[in-house]
Design brief:
It contains 7 helices and 7 strands. The termini are far apart. Helix 2 links the parallel strand 6 and strand 7. Helix content is 28%, strand content 19%.
Length: 227
């Protein structure tokens, strides 16, 4: 029995199959298979959006991020003008699971097109810090906030991070959260991974972070040898 999976491949002389990619825009991010066209369709339903395309970008550390590029609808009401990441993320959250929400939203005057009239995905500009941010930038206050902002910026590959920014809205995820905890430890700051998930902003995390490490008592190993 044969069926189409959307995967492209070719037979090699030794009988194995070499994977060449997909014949659609389906991607896999942290174990989830995502159809980019579904995200584009949901974004296009927003009254303030005209054209939209969603792509994946590599963050340089082997992880992929979803980025949405859009143009503003002509004649959009004042309510739907000046869209930002927060408004578009809230629109998508009503119909899509969290793992399908783009982390960045880039507004363009027009989508770049190839000579064939199709969207030239390679010509799309890299998102800047404002494409990730859902709130206006507010500079970190105090040594702890400034150190946390530096760590977040390094891990998330951003130029700057504000005290009102949310780690996950900036593109963070569970794996990068572990990296943040480790870098915080090296900088003399201590927090539980759960605190990153519960803290709404960088300022909230800074308020709960500790500058002294709490000793953890490790129980003895009760597994006998050769068990």
């Amino acid at each position: 029995r044969m069926y189409q999976t959307g995967d492209l491949g070719r037979w090699l002389d030794d009988g194995t199959i070499e994977f060449l990619g997909r014949n659609d825009h389906q991607v896999k991010i942290r174990g989830f298979r995502i159809e980019l066209g579904e995200i584009e369709a949901r974004l296009a339903e927003h009254a303030g959006v005209s054209d939209v395309v969603v792509v994946t970008l590599d963050d340089g550390a082997g992880d992929k991020r979803l980025v949405a590029y859009y143009t503003e609808a002509r004649g959009a009401s004042d309510e739907h003008r000046e869209l930002n990441a927060e408004a578009l993320r809230a629109h998508l959250r009503a119909s899509l699971p969290e793992y399908m929400l783009p982390v960045a939203y880039v507004k363009l005057d027009a989508l770049p097109l190839s000579v064939n009239g199709k969207v030239d995905r390679k010509a799309l500009p890299a998102p800047d810090g404002e494409a990730y941010r859902s709130h206006g930038y507010e500079a970190p206050e105090g040594d702890v906030e400034r150190e946390l902002a530096r760590i977040w910026a390094e891990v998330l590959k951003l130029e700057r991070v504000g005290r009102r920014d949310n780690f996950f809205e900036l593109g963070g995820h569970s794996l990068s959260a572990v990296t943040v905890i480790e870098r915080m430890r090296r900088a003399g700051l201590h927090a539980d991974v759960r605190q990153i998930f519960t803290a709404r902003t960088l300022a909230d995390l800074a308020a709960t972070a500790e500058t002294t490490s709490r000793d953890v008592v490790v129980p003895p190993n009760l597994i006998p040898p050769d068990a």
